[in-house]
Automatic annotation (TrEMBL):
GO terms for molecular function: chemorepellent activity; integrin binding; semaphorin receptor binding. It comes from the Eukaryota. InterPro entries: Ig-like_dom_sf, Ig-like_fold, Semap_dom, Semap_dom_sf, Semaphorin, WD40/YVTN_repeat-like_dom_sf. This is Semaphorin-7A. The lineage of its organism: Eukaryota, Metazoa, Chordata, Craniata, Vertebrata.
């Protein structure tokens, strides 16, 4: 390991002007290493083994690598590191930060690290890579201190959860309850299949997030002691998901420590059955903590299908005498695109649960999976066979909907058609004039 020069201009505090390696994990078949890089977070891939790597990989295998346990001054080429194509945003902090956690779970990466150095100071829990990026709103947690992120398997794979454990300020501390502890410990869950909300403000936020208080009490002593401050979490998985054990290390304000054990089954039941705080209304059809796409029962779907089979009146909309206008949706638009030019069509994805497909004359030409904001179709070189009708259709479970339709036309051909139409319209009044004149002559003859 050798010292290398770093640019310290990005750091306000000179103690951060070094490279703290804060995360090591395996992602996409490679060892991913991320560090502060003198306030310019960077990730590298381990490209070849070297002698100096044995102790480092030993710490990785044993899980002993903490956020401040390793400080390296290195030249990447000499220790077998290659800069990764993966952005280090939210994967490494800008300096030493004990509130920074990262979890790799398959293709998804979850993080508590803020994205920017001088804003976004409210800690959030995010999914930063893999499926759609989601984050917690600013009001979900109050000054959280994160302890652990862990994947939790359920009986059905689509219902798998991510648990994260943290301490936060107690909202009941102070005037509301003088005996309440200043800090309380929490466990929160989100569904892995969460794709965000449907509205513009909720599209990038978790919709399945629930949190509950972790209580650790020593009731065997003469005086009941509460241990309110969660320090660490260790999980022992079981072949039966419900029997997985969660060991929590707690402290109290007097400096005493205790270990409390929870089962995933107990925590899961608490999330499923407990009443919602400050809510007394009817339980919604889609209960909090459920993946929306799986929340509808078969009976409910059958009922919806039956309601769609009812007869409806056909003449709801006023008709027009222009038969050409009737053949096109009122939401369709005509676009003139010159030959050999470039053009793209954008279909806004209003639902994170739907897949979107672009069709050209009823033939699929582009497909966009759920979890993105826009579905784009590019035409790099406009040719004659590319003119025609383009429709973007969303598909969510059994429901299809046309979101937008565009008719691409050749401006040269369109001008000729308009000219022919104008000639046709000009000849029509002329014919009417002669018919009217003949009618008047006939009336004159009859009168005479």
């Amino acid at each position: 390991m050798k010292r290398f020069d770093v640019n310290t201009s990005e750091c306000e505090d000179q103690k951060d002007a070094v490279n703290y390696l804060t995360f090591i994990g395996k992602y996409q078949g490679k060892v991913l290493i991320c560090g502060t890089n003198a306030c310019k977070p960077t990730c590298w891939n381990w490209v070849r083994p070297v002698v100096a790597s044995s102790s480092l990989l030993g710490m990785l295998a044993g899980g002993d690598l903490g956020i401040s346990s390793l400080v390296l001054f290195f030249c990447p080429l000499q220790v077998g590191l290659k800069k990764s194509n993966i952005s280090a945003q939210s994967l490494a902090p800008f300096g030493l930060d004990n509130n920074s956690l990262v979890l790799i779970d398959g293709k998804d990466i979850y993080s508590t690290i803020r994205k920017f150095q001088y804003n976004g100071r409210i800690p959030r829990f995010r999914r930063v890579l893999g499926a759609a990026e989601l984050y917690t709103s600013d009001t979900v947690m109050k000054n959280p201190q994160f302890v652990k992120i862990a994947p939790i398997k359920q009986e059905e794979a689509y219902n798998d959860k991510i648990y994260f454990f943290f301490r936060e300020d107690n909202p009941d501390f102070g005037s509301n309850n003088p005996l309440a502890p200043k800090k309380i410990s929490r466990v929160a869950q989100v569904c892995k299949g969460d794709k965000g909300g449907n509205g513009s403000f909720s599209a990038a936020k978790w919709t399945t997030l629930l949190k509950s208080m972790l209580v650790c009490v020593d009731s065997d002593t003469n005086k009941v002691r509460n241990f309110d401050q969660l320090q660490d979490v260790f999980i022992v998985e079981s072949e039966q998901w419900s029997e997985t054990k969660i060991y929590g290390l707690f402290q109290n304000e007097w400096g005493y420590s205790a270990v409390c054990v929870y089962s995933v089954d107990d925590i899961s039941k608490r999330f499923r059955t407990s009443p919602l705080k400050n809510y007394s209304g009817k339980t919604p059809a889609v209960k909090p903590g459920q993946v929306k796409s799986r929340a509808l029962s078969k009976r409910f779907i059958i009922t919806v299908l039956q309601s769609l089979n009812h007869d409806v009146p056909q003449n709801i909309c006023p008709t027009s005498n222009n038969s050409e206008g009737n053949s096109r949706s009122p939401y369709a638009k005509e676009v003139s695109v010159a030959l050999h030019s470039r053009y793209f069509m954008n279909c806004s994805q209003e639902s994170h649960y739907a897949n979107y497909t672009w069709f050209h004359n009823d033939r699929p030409v582009a497909h966009c999976n759920s979890g993105h904001r826009h579905c784009l179709h590019f035409i790099d070189n406009m040719t004659a066979e590319l003119y025609g009708k383009y429709s973007c259709v969303s598909t969510e479970d059994w429901f299809n909907q046309t979101v937008i339709t565009e008719y691409l036309e050749n401006p040269a051909q369109g001008s000729r058609e308009r000219q022919e139409k104008s000639i046709g319209f000009a000849s029509t009044p002329s014919l009417s004039f002669w018919l009217g004149l003949l009618h008047m002559i006939a009336i004159v003859f009859i009168v005479q």
